[in-house]
Amino acid sequence: MKKLLISPSQMALGEQESQIYQNILKQATEISLNLMAVKVENHPEDFLQWCYELQDIAKNRLNFDLLDDHQLPTVKKLQDQLTSAISFLQLKTLRITPWPVLAAFVEQHSEVLALDEQLKLVTYLADKRTAALKEMIVEDRLAFSGKHAASLDPAVYNFDVEWFSSTKNAKGFHQLLADLPGAFDEALAHIPAQGDVTEQDYQQFMIAYFMAFNGSDEKPTLAPATRLLAMRRPDVFTPISNSKLDALCSALGITKLNNRDFERYWQDIVLTVHAMPWFKMPTPANELEQQLVDIKALLPCWFYYVDKSTSENSNYLKLLNKPKRTTSSGGKKTVRRGKESAEILVDRALSDESIPEHIRAKRDSIIAEVEKGRSVNETISLMRTIFG
Fold first, then answer.
1. Which residue ranges make up each domain of the chain?
2. What are the phi and psi torsion angles at 203 (to 5°)?
3. Who is most buried in 23, 87, 283, 338, counting CB within 10 A?
4. Is 262 in contact with 222 (CB distance < 8 Å)?
5. Contact of 300 with 238, CB cutoff 8 Å
6. What does 51-83 look like in DSSP terms, one character per residue?
7. DSSP H or E stretch at residue 310
8. Residue 24: closest CA among 69, 75, 68, 73
9. What mean pLDDT do residues 251-279 have?
10. pLDDT tens digits, residue range 185-198?
């Protein structure tokens, strides 16, 4: 362990990496006796892999039974620092990474990234990029804007809508979006659905986005705006989240943005990403890579630190595997849906040619059950069991 802890001092670290190492070492020193009890056989020779090794030790190989209560915050801080360091180091490579290397990284990490699930999200939203938010059912609007809800039927939304920068904490934004979706439509209308997007287009979006908050106590913030932009044009806009902004800005070599830095977002994030070699000259070699080209501005989202728990903590999987809850009176607890949402979800399911005509004739009954909170698939299966 001692050899592992001191090995970065023998590496050719840059100024930022050296500072990161010193901060990590400070936390490790606080729990040095516990760390020394861990057997280490892997001694990486580069700093990124060193961070991964120490992160695995801090998460999975420490004997937590031997830690005092006052040491637990230190372990958590060490884990957080390593998570941020790995994100920074991986994002930093994007500045010089050619397309084949980037594509290989994504494919090699497809399992922990929940790549299939994330691609299902962008595929689902592909035909909604030009749709009006005010015309969407509530669930589709949540999927577009990045907020999970219990009403999202996993049979329809077979993905976590919070991939690509969750907006679940932007409560004021979501309240306004629910009340005045047309105001946000006016903002997004300034972003062309195809072709080049200019700085003037973005500035017009920004003005209209600010106008959506007029008369409200809420202040317009950057992160939810970038989520809307990224879902409108995933080939142009990279979404940001407050929790990961430190790593992104450090990796891009810029001063950290704050949640009102709309001007700097275009200059420092959008244009910087667009200038990277893989972004300017992507050379897709297969169908998967072509999918990646179509959403290339989202790709930095996959260079933050992830591990096995990341994909396992998908809100989609949690909802899919959620035990049936009961009320105090013993009945099943359900989440009601609006009639419009229920109708659209049912009609989508009934459009499947494999559904018999006599089941389609039960449309109104199916809608009534889905409106009460029953899943679409469950309701149709029940109807088929009853009526054949």
1. 2-93, 108-318, 339-387
2. -65, -40
3. 87
4. yes
5. yes
6. HHHHHHIIIIIS-GGGS-GGGHHHHHHHHHHHH
7. helix 308-312
8. 75
9. 95
10. 999 999 999 999 99
